[in-house]
Every structure is written in structure tokens, then in C-alpha cells.
Amino acid sequence: MALFRRGAKGRTAEDETATGTDAVEDTADTATDAAEAPAEVAQPATAGPVDRSAGPWDESEDVPAGPRVDLGALRLPGVHGMELRMEIDKKSGTVTAVGVTLDGSTLQMQAFAAPRTDGIWDEIREEIGASVGKQGGAVDDVPGPFGRELLARLPVRTPEGRTGHRPARFVGVDGPRWFLRGVITGRAAVDEEAATRLEDLFRRTVVVRGTEARAPRDLLALTLPGNAEGVTAQSAPAGAPATPSFDPLTRGPEITEIR
């Protein structure tokens, strides 16, 4: 069965369960076949230049006015009902990523320094694909609203203890000396209509790179929202990584704020 759209208009949610859960459970036969077959990793394609006239923007560009949540390296458009989840490096206290949940789906964003002339999204897609494949998942490199993107099946264990896969979309945009990555999970990963609000939020995000010299792939650290009332901390899982990683299956400790 096909799981993904083959482009902006061709994707379907055939493999999503009728209840809209994130994990898609495999049958016993399918799980056995998958274990015997080599991991499916699509060959990388070149992303090419992306029109950013409608965003994501650099802070130096002509950014349309509107309310935004200032998170340091990122300024997110304020959307009623969105839930922010800030991932934190336990050792350094650095905020490494922000997750925005809307209508049951989530968009996680991170910003990184990039070379002045060349983008890094082509390289990052290849690395993510290899990482997912090594862990038993599969990826498909396809065109999307932000250029090339990865549609992935991330391996998970269902509550019943069976093998399943969670769909996810990896999107990325190369900007002036920065790279913005997004990971979409939930129904928005397989349903075009459900993805509209999260795609719009990603598109209207502003990246604050700064003028200091940075090595390519250096994480642009985030900060907590200016209004931190109601923010609660969550305990860190054992073995949380000390440094940020491009590994899509790794998460750090988080705090949450509902706006």
C-alpha cells in the first residue's frame, strides 16, 4: 500500500488508521517481510533554489508585520490555540528545538548556521535518510511546497507490543547563511489538508542568524518565550544527548507552554 503523496497534490493517507493515530501497525507477515528485506532508502535528489518571497524569511528582509513569538533564533507567528514545546539540552541548558502542536499534529523546528554560498539541505536529507534506514524505517525523497522533502516511516512499537511505523515529513529551507529544518508528525504528515496550518506557520517563520562567525551546522540556540508564565518543566529521559543531533528519532527534555 502507498503511504505518501508523490508531490504536493498526490499524497494519500491510505496507510493511516481510521482513528487517525500516528503509528501505523504492521501485520505479522508485513513485519516479517520488512525484517528480512533491506531498508529502503531513496536516492538523494538536488533541492535547487527555493522561492522565499513568501517565507521563511531572514530578519534582514522585508518581513510582513504581524504578531510573533520571539524565541531568539526563531520568531514564530502567533497562532491561537498552538502549543509550544521547547526541547532543552540537560547539561548546558540550551534550548535546542521548538515543537508547535496544532489540531493534533506537530511541527518541530531547528535552525542552523550554513555556508555563505552553498546550502546544506541536500546533504542533511541524505543523512536523515541513512539514519532512518539504519533503524528499520524507510524514506521517500519527493517535491513539496518548500522544495525537496523527505516522507519517512519511522519504526515504533505499538502499545500492544507489535511493530509499527509512524509517518513523518522532513522539510528544509536554505536561507542566507542559515538552514531551517522542520519535522511534521501526526495526521499532517500524510494528509494535505491537515498540513495546511503547520506549513503556513513554517512559511511565516523568521530566522535570526546574527552576524557572528559560525561553523556550518552550528545550532542557532533558541530562548524561552518572553512570557514564561504557565510554563512547566518535564523530566529528562535517561541518556539524553549532550549535544544537538540531526537524528530524527532522538528527543531531549522539554517544557511546554500553551498560548
TrEMBL record:
Extract the InterPro entries matched here: DUF3710
* Superkingdom of this protein's organism: Bacteria
Q: Where is the composition biased (Low complexity)?
A: 29-48
A Pfam family that this protein carries is DUF3710
Where is the stretch described as Disordered?
Answer: 1-69, 231-259
Q: What name has this protein been given in UniProt?
A: DUF3710 domain-containing protein
